[in-house]
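Quick one: structure for this chain?
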Amino acid sequence: MENHINPGYPLHYFSVAPMLDWTDRHCRFFHRLISKQALLYTEMVTTGALLHGDRQRFLQFDPCEHPLALQLGGSDPAGLAACAKMAEDFGYDEVNLNVGCPSDRVQNGSFGACLMAEPELVAECVAAMRQAVSIPVTVKSRIGIDDRDSYEELTGFIGTVAEAGCETFIVHARKAWLKGLSPKQNREVPPLRYDTVYRLKQDFPNLQIVLNGGITTLEQAEEVLGNGVDGVMVGREAYHNPYILADVDRRLYGASAEAVTRAEIIENLLPYIERQRAEGVRLHSITRHILGLFHGEPGARSWRRHLSEQAVKYDADASVVLEALKFTIQ
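Got it. Here's what it folds into:
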């Protein structure tokens, strides 16, 4: 399984995590302007939304977003298989099953992290999805849930699901507390245990093991990759400080081109904004994802303020972004 853009590297070598309410199609288009190589993920989409809702709205994407994976939430093998087939038909490069989200809404639907307690069901889901499609089917999990966080239980889960044909596991190196902690706390309170993920790779050398959780710099990413795992996944940092992606292609993929500048990113984004506005998309739907582009740079606060105040207006257009850009030019 290799990146069709740069075949010398695994598809999952560097990826941006699926983040609910954040990694929509506008966010992904923006991220792709910064890195050509990173694997991008959709927000988690439930099987119910695709089977009974507007699948076009949930699944549409710009061709430039490749390589791109769809993350699904669900626990019914037949439903997941049908949705995986939709993903393949729409042109996604991968379909991923969420077995790591700890939110109450997900638990009430009997999917997400609570599925780690049912490895046989997850294996059944993976088998059904793999039978339905030819694109890779992957699983994103935690290292455990609640008091079921022993290494033996984790390896039992991985082994059972791998037997169903899953070859790639993206592992958030924290366990999830399903009761008593919010999703936000579940990203911060349980301690990170990178050693557990490294050990998984040693014990399952034939699987692709990708580490997720707590990575905020490319130096950290390089260190993690140096410990033998097949890839790293970066989440919130890539959203709040998206320019971290600018050096991914050079540092991690060996690209010779210089990193794109922030001004060039905006220049390349403007035609997209104009196309989307012509289709009735509100400017704020796009600019909410670019607020962090000048993170740590002079004028960053004024950039954020101008976009936050002006882009929400009904008739706001690309000129708002150009006006905001002036605050960052020294």
